[in-house]
Amino acid sequence: MCSVTSMISIGGVVASRTDYRSSLSEDASAVQVTAVFPDEETAVTAEQVLVAWHDRCQQRVDKQGLKDAKVTATAEVKTDVGPGLQWMTTYRPVPGEPDAVWFNAEGFVRSTDMITYLVIRNPGQDYTYPRGKEPIDNALKVAGRYLRSQR
Q1: Strands 29-36, 67-71: parallel, antiparallel or unpaired by DSSP?
Q2: Mean pLDDT score, 84-109
Q3: Whether pLDDT at 22 is above 90
Q4: Mean pLDDT across the chain, nearest whole number?
Q5: Which one of 32, 82, 104, 114 counts the least CB within 10 Å of its CB?
Q6: Which long-range contacts (CB under 8 A, 24 or more apart) does 129-132 make?
Q7: Cα separation, 150 vs 66, whole angstroms
Q8: Global pTM value
Q9: Cα separation, 18 vs 3, whole angstroms
């Protein structure tokens, strides 16, 4: 919902994308993109671009005509390589489920010249995870461990 373009177009020299599907729900999915930038300075600039995408996301979803669309503020996630950021976009409709909303969690973590950007999307009626225990938090922590292992 909040990403505007590819990681390559904001300075990455190589990127890898992995798509995930859930065996529990055909509507749940996740995407992970990890990009390597030419140097740490370029990765820091790309990180600022990702924050700007978030900051303009509410305007983007409002223009899409989605019902009850809301983008949360960013929240910091502690990882093995430093802080990551995550946020949630919720919106309607979910076809065939009038009481459900889409939960679209996004976030990223950077380690020197690498950034991993994650999106987890699923429909539901509630999202009752405590702060710091949300699926996107756990995914960013795993991504941080992976990025650390690449050094």
Answers
A1: unpaired
A2: 95
A3: no
A4: 95
A5: 82
A6: 131/75, 132/77
A7: 39
A8: 0.93
A9: 16
Q: What whole-number distance in Å separates Cα of residue 66 and Cα of residue 58? A: 11
Please state the φ and ψ torsions of residue 109, each to the nearest 5 degrees. -140, 140
pLDDT greater than 80 at residue 37: yes
User: Token digits for 124?
Assistant: 């539901």
pLDDT digits (tens, 9 = 90+) for 42-69: 999 999 999 999 999 999 999 998 899 9
Residue 40 confidence (pLDDT) above 80: yes
Any residues with CB less than 8 A from the CB of 49 and at least 6 apart, and which?
10
**Secondary structure of 90-103 as H, E, C letters:** EEECECCECCCEEE
Transcribe the chain into DSSP letters. ----S-TGGGT-SEEEEEEEE-SS-TT-EEEEEEEE-SSHHHHHHHHHHHHHHHHHHHHHHHHTT-EEEEEPPPEEEEETTEEEEEEEEEEE-BTTBTT-EEEEEEEEEEETTEEEEEEEEEEES---PPTT-SHHHHHHHHHHHHHHHT-
